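Look at one record.

>
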Amino acid sequence: MNNTSSENLSPEELSFAVFCIENLAARLNMDPAKVYLLLTEKTDILYDYIVPCYESLHTQDREYILDDIEGVMREKGVLA
């Protein structure tokens, strides 16, 4: 896993990460804390995918972003 932490994120990246977590939680009907754990402790998706892909992801619409991250979560085995 990447050693990146929230301390190393720009304000824009941090805001985008929060956006992704909150919107995934609403879509999946999960607690945002659980989604955060799935993206950081169960996988490396937050710091090895979402943050590095910020420049391209944040230009997309909400549905595309959530569909994309859900697909990555399925590939990593944290969503059925």
User: Anything to note?
Assistant: The first helix runs from residue 11 to 28.
